Amino acid sequence: MEDNLEVLRSIPIFAGIKDEVLHSLSSLLKEERFLKGEYIIREADYSNTMYILRSGEVEVRKVINRESNRYKTLAILEEGDIFGEMAVFGEEFRTADVITREDSILWKMDYSDLFNIIEADPVSGVRLLQVIITILIARIKSLNRELATLYEIGRLIPETKDLEGLTGVVFRQVMNDIEPAKMGLIAIWNKFNDEFDIHHSLNMSKEHAIERNDPISIWLLENRSPLLIKDTVRNPEFEGRFYSGRSLIASPFIHDSDVLGFILLSNPYRRNAFTYSHLVLLSAVCNQVGARMKDIEKKTEDVCKERLAQVRL
Question: pLDDT > 90: what percent of the chain?
């Protein structure tokens, strides 16, 4: 129990809570362990509990089609994060899946136990509720930023007629909306040269392409998923690359399992410059743009085929 108390003290959102209240809180925590890839919560499950992530990493997903395993990532949570907090306000049905990204240890608490603490010490109880409300407000702000960015990109991309115009619009919007990004690039896969052609970049050396054997190419082509590097010093394969900086995020454009290209954003000064919220936003942008990119590619191919047919005639 003493270990629980020390960990609670170290979590920033519990700063200012009296030790006796944290002690009562720690006594109610029920430990649960999950292996990588296990579901903690499934959408539509009934629940009246909230969770504190003691160690590990989990992903919050909104199901689009469970049969085809299609979903949208809403958040990625790390040690010290809280989720399922809406259960504090009453019994509820879960609105998203929560699945582990690595082996994880969680603390679970019933909302009735939490309210017993609130009734015993109303002043500290109000502080605990403020903590939960702060979490909710932060998540609403993050969602609003994502919606604003996706709305603006959704408004602009139908007006683009070619790949160069599309990548330019998207790149400018992302660099503007993801504040820690001080450097960046947008690249498109060139199937003829077997490399990524850089269409636009900012504050980087004027490279024209990224080869297939580059670490960023290898990651995106093999994993087909977003990447967050908190500190390139801890990832030496990325250190010293023209695009890497001190920390970076990258996300691929995917269509029918094909990697069409990617966006990479970097900060040359700060480690941990990017959060998982930034990564989720960047991934959402790339998901939105992938279909439009494929549509432009197809139309370009059709025009080329038509011109070739006319030449033959």
Answer: 39
Considering the domain boundaries, does residue 154 fall inside one? no
Q: Which domain holds residue 259?
A: 161-312
d(CA 261, CA 210): 11
The tens digit of pLDDT for each residue in 258-293 reads: 899 999 999 999 999 999 889 999 999 998 898 888
- At residue 97, what is the residue type? D
What's the CA gap between 219 and 217, in Å, rounded? 6
Quote the CA–CA distance of 287 and 76 in Å, as a whole number. Answer: 17
Please report, for the domain that includes residue 185, its CATH number: 3.30.450.40
84 contacts 51 by C-beta, under 8 angstroms: yes
Confirm whether 156 is domain-assigned.
no
Half-sphere exposure at residue 88, Cβ-oriented, CA atoms within 13 angstroms: 25
Same-domain status, 139 and 167: no
**Could you tell me if 101 and 221 lie in one domain?**
no
Beta strands in 16-110 (DSSP E): 30-34, 39-41, 46-47, 49-55, 58-65, 70-77, 82-83, 92-93, 97-100, 104-110
Considering the entire predicted model, what is its pTM?
Answer: 0.80
Count of residues in the chain: 313
For residues 248 and 209, membership in a common domain is answered with yes
C-beta neighbour count of 169 within 10 angstroms: 19
Residues 79, 9: contact at Cβ < 8 Å?
no
**Structure tokens, 56:** 């590990």
Mean pLDDT over 105-116 rounds to: 83
